[in-house]
Design brief:
This protein has about 350 residues and is an alpha/beta fold. Helix content is about 40%, strand content about 15%. The structure holds nicotinamide-adenine-dinucleotide and thymidine-5'-diphosphate (TYD).
């Protein structure tokens, strides 16, 4: 990228968005980031605290991606040269409880952002960060993997909302020739993940001497990728991907949930007694697996962080950042916006 690039990053205060901003600014992938985030329960401004004092390189806008006035104001005020769209409701269990916010943010938010990017001068490229869950569920005993041409078969309200958003992005390309890219990535792990998802929840419980709830028989398989490997793939797609294309991102690292929890129990010095089997998630997808050949061959992207090393580093990060975890657990993190920007 050239020296004067402003990237609009939605959902930048969340898990993957904040890791992306940290890499983009510290490794100078762009010259400036404009972060747009509603700061829902999952948005944590502490994740971006190191940048809030650098107005030349970083601006934070608290706002809803589904609100056209807010989004138009951000485009007019900051004139981004690219849009990286992470903002979403992202937790399957919450989508089972109440799908409404998922439709609002994931579907309407994506539609609003697409329209604003298309209408902006130069119609900047928009990369939509999506999930492998749109492809449905694979059998445990098959060697099949998800790839870009596989038909969609979303099975949770979360996956259905992401699939709807993906179709809107594809439609913008076919109807308007809009410059868009979709990435469908597998499960991420790493620092700054909200402890409602399996890995940070397990680490938090293990460090606090509590037990980890494992859904059903614990044999469901997820294909884990370190968040930094995912962020580097997003950058590669943004800079070198072909317009209108979809790229499946994964690190070819399938793990049964029970194996992940056992590994975490070992890393935290806890034993089998720290594991508690609980009632299964309704409609629990059995197995996800990504074939990342297209991203590898077309973009030269490769995941770099080996699972064992990445998992041990992740446990170390949560151990060393107990105040971050405590601020999230107690809800204290919700005060960061007022502390940094003043109550409004
Ligand atoms: P997250 O839940 O940690 O963060 C989501 C962020 O979006 C939060 O900061 C939240 O405040 C913000 N947000 C929510 N609603 C908003 C709205 N209406 N307007 C503006 N901001 C809003 O999610 P994550 O795990 O970082 O996931 C980021 C993206 O990556 C999502 O689109 C998700 O579908 C996708 N994805 C996640 C994973 C994963 O394993 N976490 C895997 C593949 C794809
Ligand atoms: P999760 O982190 O919620 O991601 P996703 O459902 O989007 O894949 O869950 C990962 C796997 O772990 C999934 O199979 C559900 C399971 N799980 C548990 O067994 N216990 C838990 O407490 C959680 C949150 C998830």
């Amino acid at each position: 990228m050239s020296a004067s690039t402003t990237w609009l990053v939605t959902g930048a205060a969340g898990f993957i968005g904040s890791n992306f901003v940290r890499l983009a600014l510290s490794e100078r992938w762009c010259s400036r980031v404009v972060a747009l985030d509603a700061l829902t329960y999952a948005g944590n401004l502490e994740n971006l605290a190191q940048w809030t004092g650098e107005p030349d390189r970083f601006a934070f806008v608290r706002g809803d991606v589904a609100d056209p006035n807010t989004v138009d104001r951000v485009f007019a005020g900051h004139k981004p040269s690219a849009v990286i769209h992470f903002a979403a409701e992202s937790h399957v269990d919450r989508s089972i409880e109440d799908p409404a916010p998922f439709i609002h943010t994931n579907v309407t938010g994506t539609q609003v952002l697409l329209g604003a990017a298309r209408a902006a001068p130069g119609s900047p490229r928009m990369l939509h960060v999506s999930t492998d869950e749109v492809y449905g569920s694979l059998a445990l005993d098959s060697t099949e993997r998800f790839h870009e041409d596989r038909p969609y078969d979303p099975r949770s309200p979360y996956a259905a909302s992401k699939a709807a958003a993906d179709f809107l992005v594809r439609a913008a390309f076919h109807t308007h020739g809009q410059d868009v890219i979709i990435t469908n990535c597998s499960n991420n792990y790493g620092p700054y993940q909200f402890p409602e998802k399996l890995i940070p929840l397990a680490i938090m419980n293990l460090l606090r001497g509590e037990r980890v709830p494992v859904y059903g028989d614990g044999l469901n398989v997820r294909d884990w990728i370190h968040v930094e490997d995912h962020c580097r793939a997003v950058r590669a797609c943004l800079e070198h991907g072909r317009s209108g294309e979809t790229y499946c991102i994964g690190a070819e690292n399938e793990q049964a949930n029970i194996a992940v929890v056992r590994a975490l129990a070992e890393l935290t010095g806890r034993g089998e007694s720290a594991i508690r089997y609980v009632r299964d998630r309704p409609g629990h997808d059995r197995r996800y697996a990504i074939d990342p050949a297209k991203a590898r061959h077309e973009l030269g992207w490769e995941p770099c962080i080996p699972w064992k090393e990445g998992l041990a580093d992740t446990v170390r990060w949560y151990r060393e950042n107990t105040s971050w975890l405590e601020n999230v657990r107690t809800g204290e993190f919700l005060n960061f916006y007022d502390r940094l920007y003043g109550a409004q």
